[in-house]
Amino acid sequence: MEQLMQQAQAAGLSQDEGKSSLGAVLSLLKSNIPNEDFTKISQALPEAEQLASETDADVKSRDNGTGGLLQSAMGMIGSGGGGGTSGGVKNPAQMLALLSSMGIDSKQMMSFLPMVAKFVHEKAGVDISSYLNVPAASSDAMAESGSSASQTDGTGTGSLASQATNLLGRFGK
Q1: What is the pLDDT of residues 93-107, one digit of tens each?
Q2: How many domains does the chain have?
Q3: How many CB atoms lie within 10 A of CB 62?
Q4: Residue in 140, 139, 114 with CA at minimum distance from that of residue 128
């Protein structure tokens, strides 16, 4: 976990933002990957279940405060299918919207996501790159992904909408 938090800081995230970002990724994975893969991740990263659960609770509390606005808006974009039963983050667009509401921009996330994918692949043996729309989690691919990980919308900034659209493409929605 400490290694991931150092990588989060390298991506321009504070310690709290790194934990929030990781929690959102883990909640997304819990909702979409086979249960046995999430179990492998939880074994390699003991904080995984807690971080995902905290994010799930955050999503629920934000929805309660807005009449389910976040869930409703993201439901219109599409929801991810998957093996988990989490009540939290269901699709990449919802993950990005949640993080944006916390003040974390898509450029920071697009820098951090390949780091998370590589960490999970190395520690748990689970390739989550297709769920996050990042290059394959091999060491060689990650070394080459520095510039390609920060996808943009043509303006050089990578809008939240374009990132969500790119991520949703991985879910076939």
Answers
A1: 888 888 888 889 888
A2: 1
A3: 17
A4: 114
